[in-house]
Each structure stands twice: as C-alpha cells, then as structure tokens.
Amino acid sequence: MSAPTLDRPAAPDERALQEHFDATIAADKRIEPRDWMPEGYRTGLIRQIAQHAHSEIIGMQPEGDWLLAAPSLRRKAILLAKVQDEAGHGMYLYSAAETLGADRADLTDKLIERKQKYSSIFNYPTLTFADVGVIGWLVDGAAICNQVPLCRSSYGPYARAMIRVCKEESFHQRQGFELLMTMMRGTEAQRAMVQDAVDRWWWPSLMMFGPPDVDSPNSAQSMAWGVKRHGNDELRQRFVDMTVPQAAVLGVTLPDPELALDPATGRYRFGPIDWSELKAVIAGNGPCNDERIARRRAARDGNAWVTEAATVYAAKRTQEHAS
Ligand code: FAQ
After folding, report:
1. In this predicted model, what pLDDT tens digit does every residue of 83-138 receive, in sequence order?
2. Where does the chain have alpha helices with state H?
3. CB-CB contact of 111 with 52 (8 Å)
4. Which helix (H) or strand (E) covers residue 262, if one does?
5. Structure confidence by residue, pLDDT tens digits, 161-210
6. Which of 15, 23, 46, 102 is 20 to 30 A from residue 201's alpha carbon, by CA?
7. Is residue 207 in contact with ligand 1, taking CB distance under 6 Å?
8. 286: Cβ below 6 Å to ligand 1?
9. CB atoms within 10 A of CB 193
C-alpha cells in the first residue's frame, strides 16, 4: 500500500477490502451499495435479482388473463390489486439491481432476448378461475417459503425489498386459500375445478425451488456469501410440510401417492420430481414460454414512446435541479 498523503489517503488494497467484506459477511452484517464487494458477488446478485424481478413481471400474465373474466366485482378488485402488487415487486427488485450497477432497460432486453431466466412456474396456462386461487395458495406459498429467508440476505437493498414483498405475498396466499375454500364449499363442479387445478400446479410448484442441491451450481457460493440462506431442497421440504396440512383443511388431494408423514423426522416424504420437465421449461419449451415473452416484447415495444418521454422528462428535471 502506498503512503497516505494529507489531501488524498491511499486507497486500501484489494486484500484489505476483501478482508473487510469477509468480516462483514461473517458477522452477519449487510453489504450496502457503496461497499466494496467481489465481482462474483455483484454479478451473482444481479443474476438472481434480475431473474426474480423478471419472474414478478412475467408472473402478472397468468393471473392477468382472468382480470376480464373474474366471476364478481369483488374477485376482480382483489385480483387487480394482486397483479398490481406483483408489478410493484418487480419495480423494487429492478431498483435493487440498479444499486449494483445494472441498467433496467438492459435487463428487460436480456429477458426478451432470453438471455436471462424467469421462474419456470409462469410458463403454465391458467385454464379456469380455480387456477387463480391455486396460484395464490401454492405459488405465492412457495414464494413465501423461498423469500422469507431472503429478508436476511447479506445484500441490504435486496433484503429490505424482500420484507415488503413477503408481507404482500402473505396476503396473496391467504386470498388464494380463501378463494379455493369458497369454491370447495360450492357445487360439485367447482370442487372438481379446484382439484383439477391442484393436480396441474402441484409438481410445477415444487420445481420452483430449483434443481436438487447436488445439481445446483450456484447454491454453495450463494450460501457462503449469505445471499441464499438455505439450499433448494430444504426450502422445498418446508413448503411440502407447510402445505400438506392446508390441503387437508381445504379437502383436496395432492397428486402424489408417495406423500406420507415420516414419523422419525416429522416431515413429509414425497415422490420423485420429473426434473426433465423443469429443464425443458427453463430451456424455453414449456407450454407458454413463447406467449409470455411475446407479450412482454409487445409491451416494451408498444410503450417505448412512454419510456422515452419519461426518460427525457426525468433528465430535464435533474438538469433543472442541478442548475
Ligand atoms: N425457474 O444453481 P441454482 C413469485 C435456474 S417470484 C427458472 O439452484 P439459484 C412471486 C437458476 O437461475 C418466483 N430457472 O440457482 C409471484 C440457475 O440458472 P443460471 C421467483 C430456474 O439461483 C407469485 C440454474 O437454474 N422467485 O413467485 C429455476 O441458486 C405469484 C441453476 O439453479 C425468485 O426468483 C426455476 N424454477 O437458485 C409472482 C426468488 N430454478 O442463472 C406472481 C429468488 C433454478 O445459473 C404470482 N431466487 N433455475 O443460468 C432464488 O431463490 C434462486 O434464484 C432460485 C434458484 C431458488 C430460484
């Protein structure tokens, strides 16, 4: 390290910075945007946060398809609020990615060009209104299991965004359960509709947690850096343990003959997951991948003039404030 001068202290060398970063992580404190961080930590976070943001934005589509066909004004108002919440989550997350130096428009381009992923779950169709309830119950339920630990993620802006997101997802899950409960108390046809939706969404919900730990290239480093707090398998198991008793209350059957309580562990054993399906959906070959991306592309292109006007206006305001 060169000798510090009176007017310009020498920049600490990379080793000292790395040591400070490691000590912050070891003490379970937060890394903030202006702190030094290893390049892999920064790019790994952008990868995960961008995928998460894209999931929230693409995730508006399956339920959004039912906005015009909701069975009552009350259900329409609830659904509209939920879909708007998902948009808000996407915005917090893109903002968190921007604190790491990412550019929001560039992230959107990468999503549309299929260079960045989004959650596999949003590539399945919503065939009936029961799917709206099942997304709330199972998909938001899985999102909560996955995201509550992220409120303690080592990167400050991500962790803080997750606190609000989780509160809202919690409400979403309850509204889904309430919707399904209402249908289950209805006619035989409504109960059949709920069961059919559960049959279609159960396995894809388990896949949301990602590949098994042994096949997860990012988990070990991500956990060492305190970004992820648990492996994919542990979070999936927590979801199963939480959901099985809820299914019993609802009166639906989960489509897994191997599902059984293990008395030794107090946890539920479940059957094998078809990982080839997850791989195919991630690779772009799920039932709705093309439709989801095409719609996002149309939204970007069709609204380009709004983005341009807002960007010019914001730049002008910044210039006025500066002068
Ligand atoms: N779909 O090494 P890992 C929501 C990719 S939000 C697609 O285990 P990692 C709210 C993974 O990116 C739902 N890709 O990766 C809502 C990686 O690819 P890469 C989204 C997947 O990051 C509710 C590769 O496979 N939630 O639901 C999937 O350590 C209702 C290897 O995997 C989040 O994003 C998948 N399912 O663990 C909205 C939460 N799984 O990048 C509307 C934050 C894995 O190396 C309605 N993210 N991949 O090329 C996370 O916790 C993690 O990123 C995981 C994946 C757990 C998703």
Report:
1. 999 999 999 999 999 999 999 999 999 999 999 999 999 999 999 999 999 999 99
2. 14-26, 39-58, 60-64, 73-98, 104-112, 130-134, 140-147, 156-184, 188-207, 219-224, 232-250, 275-280, 289-302, 304-322
3. no
4. strand 260-262
5. 999 999 999 999 999 999 999 999 999 999 999 999 999 999 999 999 99
6. 46
7. yes
8. no
9. 22
Cα of 34 from ligand 1 centre, angstroms = 26
Q: Which two tokens stand for residue 269?
A: 């054993």
pTM of the model as a whole: 0.94
What pLDDT is attached to residue 260? Answer: 97
17 Cα to the center of ligand 1, angstroms = 30
Q: Identity (one letter) of the amino acid at 33?
A: P
pLDDT of 9: 55
Instruction: Kindly tell me if the per-residue pLDDT of 302 is higher than 80.
Output: yes
**Which residue's CA is minimally distant from atom 4 of ligand 1?**
143
Best CA proximity match to 196, nearest among 108, 248, 133? 133
**Inter-residue contact 81 to 273 (CB < 8 Å):** no
Q: What is the mean pLDDT of the chain?
A: 95
Ligand 1 centroid vs 52 CA: distance in angstroms? 7
The secondary structure of 121-167 as a DSSP string is: GGGS---STHHHHHIIIIIHHHHHHHHTGGGG-SBHHHHHHHHHHHH
Residue-level pLDDT at 321: 86
Structure tokens at 277: 């399906």
Q: At 273, is the secondary structure helix, strand, or coil?
A: coil
In the predicted model, is pLDDT for residue 68 greater than 60?
A: yes
Report the C-alpha gap between 74 and 269 in whole angstroms: 38
Structure tokens at 242: 């939480």
Q: Which residues touch 130 (CB under 8 Å, ≥6 apart)? A: 180, 183, 190, 193, 194, 196, 197
Q: b vs e for 218-248, b when ≥16 Cβ sit within 10 Å of the residue's Cβ?
A: ebeebeebbbbbbbbbebbbbbbeebbebbe
